[in-house]
Amino acid sequence: MRPYQIALKNLIRRPARMFFLTVALAVGLAAVVALVTLSNSMTADIEHTMDQFGANILITPKSNDLALSYGGISLGRVSFDQRELDPSVLERIRTIKNHQNIAAVAPKVLGAVTVQGRELLLVGVDFAAELRMKPWWRLTGSEPSAPDHALLGSSTAQVLGLKPGERLTISGKTFTVAALLQETGSQDDGLLFVPLAAAQAITSKQGKITLIEVAALCSGCPIGEMVEQIAGVLPDAKVSAIKQVVEGRLQTIGQLKRFSLGMGGVIALIGLLVVFITMMGNVNERKVEIGIFRAIGYRTGHVMGIILLEAGLVGLVAGLAGYLLGVGAAAVALPLLAQSGHPHLLLQWQVAIAAIAAVGLVSLLAAIYPARRAGRMDPADALRSL
Amino acid sequence: MITTANLTKNYPSDAGNVAALKGIDLTVETGEFVCIMGQSGSGKSTLLTILGGMCHPSAGSVEVDGAAIYSLNDDGLADFRARHFGFVFQSFHLVPYLTALENVMLPLAPLKMSAVEKRGLAGDALARMGLADCAGRLPGRLSGGEQERVAIARAVVNRPAILFADEPTGNLDSTTSDQVMGLFTELHQAGQTIVMVTHNPDNGRYAQRTIRLKDGLVLHTTASCS
User: Fold this and answer.
1) Is pLDDT above 80 for A46?
2) In this predicted structure, what is the pLDDT of residue A273?
C-alpha cells in the first residue's frame, strides 16, 4: 500500500463521488473538441471548396511596372510596350515539387482594341482552362470552342448590342458571339474574351502571354509555398498570391478557430471552477479521513499527492471520454454544417493529446489549493473527537 | 518515555484565551499503561493530542525518549508520529473504502518497506486481533467490535513505542468493551506503552496508573483508575 494506491482505491470503490465531476468535465471538453474538430473539418472542407473557386496564384512579367487591373486583381493599365511572358513558362510551372496541387493553368494575353468605335479590353484565353477555373460563370449561348468564337461580358454585350450567334469584327478579324457571360459582378462583365491565339494575332503578341492565372489546391500545401516554388522555376516572372481569395479564406478559417478557442477558454474556466468547488467539498467531506492520514504520519506532500492524483485521474478519464464524445458529436454535426456534400471528418492526434492533457492540467490546477489545504490540515482539528 | 514540562495550551475564544492546560508536568515510563480521566472540559483530550504530536502546545515541552518532538518541523513531526506513535480513535475512524487489511496497512504506506513486508505485518496485526478472516472486508461489513479491533491492529502495526487511545470503548457494549480492554492488557503485557483517555472508570482497572485532570491541571495521580 502506497499513498497513490489510496487515491486509486477511493476512485474505484467510490466512483459515484467523482462521477458527476467526470461527466461535467467530459461534457465541457466534448463541446470544445466538437467545435475544434468541426472547425478543422470545415476548414478542410472550405479549403477544398474554395480551391475550386478560381485562381489563387497570379504570374506576371517581373519587370512590368504597370499597374494592370483584371478581375479585381491589381494589374494596372493596359500598355502596349509592356514585357510579356514566354509560353515555355507553362511547361515550367508543371515542374514544381507540388505540381500535383495545380488544378488549372490559365494563360492570358491582354490588349486594348476598338470595336464599333468603343475602346475595350480584349482578353485572349484558353477557354477550356478558363471555364474549368471559373465554374461560377453562367453562359447564355454555347461554350466557345471554335477559333473564331467570342465570349462577351454582360456589360460588353449590352454596350455593343450583341447576342449569341451574331458577329463582330475586331481589327479586321470576324468572330461569332458564342455566348454571353451572365452578370458576375466582377470586371469580367466588361471584357471581351476570344481564343488565346486570335488575341495574340490581333494584339501582335504572337507566342506571348501577358499573365497566367493558376488554381492551386492548397489543402496540404500552404499557398505561400506554392508561390515560392513557382517563383523558383520562373525567375523572370513575378509570382504572387491573389490576396482577396487567400485573405477571404484565412478570415473564414480564423473566425472559426477564434470562436473555438474562445469557447475552449470559457469552458476551461468553468471546468476549473467546477473542479475547484468539487475538490474543496471533497476535502471538507473527508476531513476526518485526512485527519487520520495526518495523525498516523502522512506528510503534507503525501496528502496533497492523494488529492492531486484523484483530480488528475478524474481529469484524464474525463479527457478521454470527452474527446470521444466530442468527436462523435462532430461526426453527427459535420454533414449538417459543411459546405460540400461529402465532408471529411478531420481527426488529428494532436487534438486528442491536447484535449486530454488540457483537462488533466485544468483538474490538477484547480485541485492545487484544495490539496494544499488538505495537506496542511491539523490532525487534531480534523479529528474533533480527540 | 514521555516527559512534559509546564505544558500549557490556550485556545482563542470570543471571551479571550481559554486555558485548556495550565502547566502540566508528567512522566509516562516506557512500558507503562496510563489512564487519563476527567470530566468534559478538563483538558484530557487536549493533553492526549499534544502528547501524540498532533497539536502544538502554547508553552512547555514534550519529550519522547529524550527527543523534543515540537522542535521538529511539520514533516519531521509527521515522520515521528509514523515511526513512534500509534493511535486508536473514538468511533474507530476506519477509512470506509479500504478493506480491513488495507486500513491496517495505512500507517505503513509512508514507510520505506516492500509491499510484501507491509502486507505481512498488517496480516500479522489482524491475526493478533483475531481478525485474519476479515482481512478482505470493508469496514461497513464489520461489527462494532471488529471495527475497533481493526483500529487497534492499525495502531500497533508499525510497532509503535507509544499507543494512544481516545475513548476506545466509547461506542461499544460492555461485553465487547471487555474484549477490547483485554487486548490492551495483552499489548501492555507484551511491553507496549499505552496512554488512554477514558470516561469509563471500569476501563481504569486495566491501567497501572490514573492521571485525573480538572480544569487543565493534574488533580491527582493514583495507581489505579477505579
Assistant:
1) no
2) 92
B47 three-state secondary structure: helix
Helix A15-51 with A349-375: angle, nearest 10 deg: 150
Which of A12, A292, A296, A310 is most worth mutating to test chain B (most B CB atoms within 10 A of its CB)? A296
A186 three-state secondary structure = coil
The per-residue pLDDT for range A318-331, each reduced to its tens digit, is: 999 999 999 999 88
For strand B162-166 and strand B85-88, is the pairing parallel, antiparallel, or unpaired?
parallel
Average pLDDT over residues B37-64: 91
Contacts of B55 in chain A (CB under 8 A): 378-380
Q: Looking at residue B210, what DSSP letter applies?
A: E
Asked if B78 and A3 come within 8 Å (Cβ–Cβ), the reply is: no
Q: Average pLDDT of chain A? A: 84
Residue B103 has pLDDT above 90, yes or no: yes
Closest C-alpha among B179, B187, B224 to residue B206? B224
pLDDT of B150 > 90? The answer is yes
Rg (CA), chain B: 17
Greatest distance between any 2 Cα atoms in chain B: 54
C-alpha cell at B35: 489512564
Q: Is A273 exposed, middle or buried (0-12, 13-18, 19+ CB in 10 A)?
A: exposed
Q: Give the pLDDT score at B109.
A: 87
Residue A339 identity (one-letter amino acid): Q
- Closest-CA distance of chain A to residue B226, Å: 22
Closest C-alpha to B150, from B182, B117, B173, B183: B183
Interface contact B45-A294, CB threshold 8 A: no
Amino acid (one-letter) located at B74: D
For the whole model, what pTM was predicted?
0.68
Handedness of CA B80, B84, B90, B92 (dihedral sign): positive
Residue A55, all three cell numbers: 485562381
- Alpha-carbon distances, residue A110 vs A122, A206, A260 (angstroms): 6, 12, 45
Three-state DSSP state, A54: coil
